[in-house]
Amino acid sequence: MNFDLTILGTGSAIPSFGRFSSSQVLHTHNKSFLIDCADGTQFQLRRYNVKTNRMGHWFISHLHGDHCFGIISVISTMGMLHHTNDIYIHAHPHLEPVLQAQLNYFCKDLPFKVYFEPLNPLQNEVIYEDRSLTVSTIPLVHSMPTCGFLFKEKVGEPHLNRELLDFYGVGIEDMKHLKEGADFTTSDGRVVPNSRFILPPTPPKSYAYCSDTAYTERIIPIIEGVDVLFHEATFGQAEAFRTKETLHSTAKQAGMIAQKAGVKQLIIGHYSARYATLNHLLDEAQAAFPNTLLSYDGMKHSW
């Protein structure tokens, strides 16, 4: 099953040069997951035609405004659009009293319920699971408790070799038995071992979201080998001294993490408002990890 990512905002705390602040939607297995929700997210959802009817679980990395100020506006708009599915917000527990007060004042008659699912951003643990997918926290290093999120598809069932099924004329009932591990017996009594029919399952897909964070190699064992890594790249090397003050990363550092973790694809974002153009950030990241993409508002990426 494809992972389809829509990046709604690529800027940092101060929107600039047409970039909204952090928000993304990951769609897979007929569900959509909202990752961070800055102010303006409701406009970006409409602008890029992102459907919200299956967007039931929201994951908030931390409680800086450029990652969570849009929550109440999106909920309010979904209420006016007669959204009926309940919403579960996975976030630091301090969000609940703040947002509950807003819900009580602005959103008294919602046609759905909002549930809070508190998480501990300092621990790596599974915080969501369904039959197809798990979501785990990735502890990050920032000026307040912050975590990223690892979306990991579960290993599926092995496949049956279609050519051999056709060759032996295997019927539907026998296919069920093969999936259960039985051998196949032909019409003339020959036994064909089960292993001949079985092909490995499709490799599970994965996505890691890491924003905001200073450079930390502690995340490498968690994100190792993921298909796609989104890693913040707030600064270029000329402003590397700012990373110690703000606990953010440079584009080069994002590339270094991707290279050391052996990921397949890196996407960088969360750019400082000081940059009108971003090619130098891409160049710096690619110097460490060539398979890097520069994110932009409205970017869609599938794998």
Describe the structure.
The protein has 303 residues and is of the alpha/beta class. The chain has 2 domains: 4-156 and 202-295, Ribonuclease Z/Hydroxyacylglutathione hydrolase-like (Metallo-beta-lactamase, Chain A), CATH 3.60.15; 159-199, no CATH class. It contains 10 helices and 18 strands. The strands form 4 sheets. It has a 7-stranded mixed sheet with strand order 6-5-4-3-2-1-18. It has a 7-stranded mixed sheet with strand order 7-8-9-14-15-16-17, with helices on one face. Helix 9 runs parallel beside helix 10 (279-288). It is globular and about 75 Å long. The protein starts with a strand and ends with a strand. 39% of the residues are buried.
Number of domains: 2
CATH topology of the largest domain: Metallo-beta-lactamase, Chain A
Name of the level-1 CATH class of the largest domain: Alpha Beta
Largest sheet properties: 7 strands, mixed
How do the SSEs run, as a string of H and E? EEEHEHHEHEEEEEHHEEEEHEHHEHEE
Major β-sheet strand ordering:
6-5-4-3-2-1-18
Q: What do the pLDDT scores average to?
A: 95
CA-based gyration radius: 22 Å
- Tally the beta strands: 18
% residues in beta strands = 25-35%
Descriptive key words:
303 residues; alpha/beta; Metallo-beta-lactamase, Chain A; 2 domains; seven-stranded mixed beta sheet; 10 helices; globular
